[in-house]
Design goal:
Elements (H helix, E strand, L loop, with lengths): L20 E6 L9 H9 L6 E6 L5 H8 L7 E4 L4 H10 L2 E5 L12 H8 L3 E4 L5 H8 L3 E4 L4 H13 L1 H6 L1 H12 L1 H17 L2
Helix pairs in contact: 1-2, 1-6, 4-8, 8-9
Length: 205
């Protein structure tokens, strides 16, 4: 998944502070993502002030999420507007956990392109989707992260808390996950798939 340029170095205003465990969602903040449950999990985890939830992007659900964040806003919940792709990529690579979230049923109609971006950074993915979906199987089956069913805020919060408690090991294994992500979704793999498709079409006009 080629971003078309080098990944920038984040300034102090964007980089993750050393004592923070950052959970990031980057992309469209719309109704299909069901991000309200992530805000609910943030409230459940408010006792661990080192866990920070960062939402990067714009969308119709943004005002509601800011309202739901309430007293956590700009404390353990932070919102950033849409960022250029290289900056968003750097933010995901700097985070500890990258969120993919889709409301029930949506995963059968769409495969989020952010999966590829997330995977090639080596950041562990936490997918809030149907556990039996192809997306969930791609993530767990390739060791890219974990899956939590939608509408189970307690399980979502518990999974994030467990990741925080296991943060040092997750950070140590980043390079290995990045290699797996590049093998699945990197530029070389993508070009090979396109070449195979073109060759197949040429052979079967």
């Amino acid at each position: 998944f080629d971003l078309g340029g080098p990944v920038p170095v984040l300034g102090d205003d964007l980089a993750r502070p050393g004592d923070v465990f950052r959970v990031i969602f980057a992309g469209n903040i719309g109704f299909f993502q069901g991000l309200e449950q992530l805000i609910a999990a943030a409230h459940d985890l408010a006792d661990v002030t080192q866990i920070q939830f960062l939402f990067v992007g714009n969308g119709v659900a943004l005002p509601r999420l800011r309202e739901l964040a309430g007293p956590l806003l700009d404390r353990t919940v932070r919102f950033l507007p849409f960022q250029p792709m290289p900056v968003a990529h750097a933010l995901v690579g700097d985070a500890d956990l990258a969120i993919i979230a889709l409301k029930p049923g949506v995963v059968h109609l769409a495969y989020p392109s952010k999966t590829m971006t997330y995977a090639t950074t080596g950041t562990p993915i936490l997918a809030v989707v149907e556990p039996g979906s192809a997306l969930a199987q791609d993530i767990t089956g390739n060791g890219l992260g974990s899956v939590v069913a939608q509408d189970d805020v307690a399980a979502l919060a518990a999974t994030i808390r467990a990741a925080y408690e296991n943060r040092e090991e997750l950070r140590r294994n980043r390079a290995e996950r990045r290699q797996r992500g590049e093998a699945l979704f990197g530029a070389a793999r993508t070009l090979q798939l396109w070449s195979d498709l073109i060759a197949d079409l040429a052979a079967n006009p």
